[in-house]
Task: inverse folding
DNA sequence: GGCCTACTCTAGCACTGCTAGAAAAGCTAG
DNA sequence: CTAGCTTTTCTAGCAGTGCTAGAGTAGGCC
């Protein structure tokens, strides 16, 4: 009984840590999330954070990154639902770039950390593999092997996300880039 | 007379800072390059660094990043020299990925920093614009506007570089990805 | 030789992630 | 209801970071 309530309290606090950390990171970047400010925001002292995440700040970032992969998978899957060929490619790509643009720091955590997981491998984190499968499904290329083309398409999406975030791309050409991408990878 | 010797001494020390910083960064990552270790390595104290680079560590990283852009431009230009169509695309892409793989931390500095420069704009840093022009020249796509296609191609190259470095791509499929990229962007 | 300028260093600030040991709270048993 | 024990939580501090004010030292000039 007591253990159950205790467990729920701990789970709740863990979620609070992740929620506050994400919120603050989106507001002022990852460097603005310090163990001190984070601890104060949840109403506890620093060591409590290490009780939940022994790996410290980087483990907190990794946890948020995993949540991000789940959200990205859901968003791209929903976007491609029921579509075929180039339309599916365009829709999935658009959803991907939108997620990255709307959650820049979460997205950066998803790729900045040494999570050590090769997308196309079977023994990867299930969430990563799931996300990769969606990309594979919209590469309308029968000549090449699909996983390889998917790796290239994912790279293009990732590059676009990073470079748009860094303001290296012309904002007004966003849809043109998406059309170009869909034309090159969307198959028939 | 004396001023000239003085100026040369200062220039030499500036180069020593950049050289040592790059060396150490390639050996142990950017975090291992601290103002203390860097100052000690060049035989001076920390404030001397700020005499050369008032912006501190980030300005040193920016300076190295600019050198990196110069090297990347030279490497890709040399690779594409005299080639046409898909062959040029493949060669340039290969040179690009090789540079990123051989200079991972310099490459990361080239894109991690807020240098604030949109590649396709005329008023960008000349070095950046020059590098972009090479990419434009190997996009054999007459239907789309070339700069937009070049932005997408650059994104794909950047994404491949980052994700290969992060071990998210299967290493044994590297040439297959390059062929796929050249096939999709190389034109006729 | 004496002075003045320009350079260089020492010492320290404010901040970071992280942790050992003290204090407090809560549960268990008598 | 109290005593003791376990678990949780906090205080205080370490080692390291980027950066800088002011003291000290070297150099060239008259």
Result:
């Amino acid at each position: 009984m007591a253990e159950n309530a205790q467990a729920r309290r701990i789970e709740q606090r863990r979620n609070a840590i992740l929620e506050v950390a994400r919120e603050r990171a989106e507001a002022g970047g990852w460097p603005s999330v310090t163990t001190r400010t984070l601890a104060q925001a949840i109403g506890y002292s620093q060591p409590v954070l290490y009780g939940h995440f022994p790996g410290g700040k980087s483990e907190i970032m990794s946890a948020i990154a995993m949540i991000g992969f789940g959200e990205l998978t859901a968003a791209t899957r929903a976007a491609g639902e029921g579509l075929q060929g180039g339309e599916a490619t365009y829709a999935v790509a658009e959803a991907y770039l939108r997620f990255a643009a709307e959650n820049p720091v979460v997205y950066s955590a998803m790729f900045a950390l040494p999570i050590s997981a090769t997308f196309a491998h079977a023994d990867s984190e299930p969430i990563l593999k799931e996300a990769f499968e969606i990309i594979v499904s919209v590469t309308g290329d029968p000549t090449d092997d699909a996983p390889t083309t998917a790796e290239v398409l994912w790279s293009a999406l990732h590059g676009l996300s990073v470079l748009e975030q860094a303001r290296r791309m012309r904002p007004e050409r966003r849809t043109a880039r998406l059309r170009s991408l869909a034309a090159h990878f969307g198959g028939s």
Q: What stands out?
A: The interface with chain B takes residues 111, 114, 116-121, 141, 144-145, 147-149, 151-152, 154-160, 162-163, 166-170, 173, 176-177, 179-181, 183-185 of chain A (CB under 8 Å).
